[in-house]
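#lab-general

N.A. 3:47 PM
ok so I finally got the sequence cleaned up, no stray characters, all 177 residues accounted for. can someone with queue access submit it? mine expired

B.Y. 3:52 PM
send it over

N.A. 3:53 PM
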Amino acid sequence: MADEAVKLLSGENVEMNVCKENVYIWREADFRIKMTLEFEKIYELEHVDWDYGIKNCVYSVNGRDFKDLNCMRGHVIKKFPMTRDDCGYELRKYPDGKKFLFYWEDIPTFDDGDREWDSMKYRAVFCDENGVNVIHCHEGYKLPRIRICVGMKKVSAEFLRWLVYIGCPYDKFPEKI
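B.Y. 4:20 PM
back already:
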């Protein structure tokens, strides 16, 4: 798998799989807008043992290395206005200067399982020399999986506005669906 866009470099309690579907559904926080994003490939890093979440997981996306969820961390450049206070969009910058869109959302929890595995939702969108990529996860006290979508090919028109903010060159823009 030397030519794969995503590589699992190391980690505890984690395995990598290629998803059969190459479509990712992006719902806006108010649930009124649902956007379809089509990718060349979607990968999933998933925990192996239900007693433990993913830990010390180092992976590469088109040569850019991340550990666990540090793909979501960066200097905040701009916060976008929201009508809710339990979610948000931010334009952020990695230490190397690359801009990315960060989305976070608190998820209501109803039991210990929710709090353990599914109390937060995170997304990072960035552009590299191979195109636009999305990293998505839900987590709680434990991290169950990281979904990595690479090479955005087609997208709902409403999503294109975000690509301008992250500085994506127009030749890397995906087709409109």
